[in-house]
Amino acid sequence: MSYTKEDVWKYHAEPRPGKVEVLPSKRGETQDDLTLAYSPGVADACRAIEADPAAAASLTARSNLVAVVSNGTAVLGLGNIGPLAGKPVMEGKGMLFKMFADVDVFDLELATTDPDELINVVKTLEPTFGGINLEDIKAPECFYIEQKLKEIMNIPVFHDDQHGTAVISGAGLINAAHIAGRKMEDMKVVVVGAGAAGIACANFYVSLGVKRENIWMFDSKGLIHKGRQDKLHPTKAAFAQEKDATLAEAMQGAHVFLGLSKPGLVTQDMVRSMASHPVIFACANPTPEIFPDDAKAGGARVVSTGRSDYPNQINNVLCFPGIFRGALDVRASQITENMKIASAYAIAGLVSDEELSADYILPKAFDPRLRDAVAHAAAEAARKDGVARI
Q: How distant, in Å, are the alpha carbons of 172, 355, 360, 372 from that of 351?
């Protein structure tokens, strides 16, 4: 749809500012209701939790409450705009959690760029929440923050910019490979954009069967290779090629292009130089690395973007609500790699063999089957991995 700034302002400002609110889940109409909700009745609930902390899952909202945490250092395509300016995005995330998985959210915008300070703040909030969704935190700090929180917290911690994008593009890759007649282990993949999402996608493709040495990753300085003079972060160095190459050179004979970078990087000639039936995931927003019509004119078999006005939108909302729904339902202590893989295959599986086509490799966000399919897959994988408490 087309819109104006006035449309956005009106949507966010009326009839009340913002996109979320807090509502009571219990009746509070009589004196008896208040006696149960607060003093003196609430004391019995407190004593029960003191005696058995697991009782909090039954007696409080904690087991269905997720924190969306950001410091605003990498907000959408806007960059480091700070925590306050990023709040509309975090409220939007909370809205999507509720709409698509009935998960309640408090959005927490933290005024710090110190990774350890952010870690300490989030850790102290563990009694409040059943899960933590990290959002819009810049790389490489986001890798350290997520890893440390996973180590020290006993509830799921999930950086959606990394893993949500990885799971959705992975689901798309599963079906695109089927259409193109390719096996994961035979694919050469070119990734442009070595931020949080790009690195997570590359690692997830490895989990799906792509060989690490077959992934050619570019950052703002060019191909990641062993001869680079600048110091590469370990997350990038893991994908270093032996020798340097331009993007045009790397695209020759490639089977898949994944772009999470900036507009206009890919030409029709680059697509023509790829292997037969190439797959293009051009996810820069709002303007992709190459538009679908141009990619198809260059011979692309399957094209996805991050936009809703083209087929095959790679949209994290297909993933994160269902994964958290499944993790919360079994009170998982963490979200494992197998939970992400199972979710990707569940999403891909919602497109039947009869429906699968170049313009339909991913279900729509409003597909009514999506929530339960992903939640069930994540929950079952959590049980198999031994991280489910129930």
A: 10, 6, 8, 15
